[in-house]
């Protein structure tokens, strides 16, 4: 269970006299839910997702993951909590000059000696898991390819393979399909849906595409100017909910 209580964030600087990015958000997301966050640009979607694992520090409020406070937890506890939370971004945040294999393994084996990643030599079990994750996302055979030689869709699938290696209980996505064409967007969402279904992963994604959000998510949260304007099943999201 993910609990968010009274979350507030007001960015300073940049003439920050305006409205807060998050204006007191409270939510409970049950284990196994697939939630999509929708809303216009600047609504606070990205800030909300990033406050959940404290990539952005909220000014006030609480985030509690399975009874453990994320907000206020010291660095070593935060590290343990983050190990259970996977994240995919619009820009995949892969190491573009290194191999697909290195990228997929790197997330989980961050403490591996640097020569391993430079030479592409990994413990056999890690390599086996990575190959299996790459097969799941349809990238078998591209293990040795440099990431910057992949297409955008392949890169996002490599990022998903990295998340599969992590085996997170919660998957956060900050516009994970926004940089992809329709075919790859569908493919990546279908992959995330399969992880949700088969591994019981709780999923919270910011999406721009309302139709796809309605198709994949079991719950839609509408955000406008840092406040929740809609929270319900996709069937209840009518045209009037999308007007601002
Ligand atoms: P969304 O993801 O819905 O587009 P964001 O969370 O990115 O919304 O942004 C919410 C508001 O916070 C916007 O007004 C945006 O300009 C502002 N904002 C986001 N990130 C920063 C930042 N790093 N510094 C200053 N303002 C920011
Ligand atoms: P942008 O300014 O980034 O182009 P839009 O304003 O077009 O973003 O909104 C992005 C999508 O989110 C649109 O398809 C819109 O229908 C939907 N949307 C906008 N506001 C809401 C809201 N309050 N709740 C749910 N969905 C919304």
List keywords for this structure.
single chain; 244 residues; alpha/beta; 6-stranded mixed sheet; 9 helices; binds adenosine-5'-diphosphate; nucleotide-binding; membrane; ABC_transporter-like_CS; AAA+_ATPase; ATP binding
Give your account of this protein's structure.
Residues 2-244 form the ABC transporter domain. This is Phosphonate ABC transporter ATP-binding protein. InterPro entries: AAA+_ATPase, ABC_transporter-like_ATP-bd, ABC_transporter-like_CS, ABC_transpr_PhnC, MetN_ABC_transporter-like, P-loop_NTPase. Pfam families: ABC_tran (PF00005). GO terms for molecular function: ATP binding. The chain is an alpha/beta fold. The mean pLDDT is 90. It has nine helices and ten strands. 36% of the residues lie in helices and 23% in strands. The protein has a six-stranded mixed beta sheet with strand order 6-7-8-3-9-10, sandwiched between helices. Helix 3 packs parallel to helix 6, helix 5 (124-136) packs across helix 6 and helix 6 (152-166) packs parallel to helix 7 (182-199). The protein binds adenosine-5'-diphosphate (2 copies). The site of one adenosine-5'-diphosphate (ADP) has 11 residues, from helix 1.
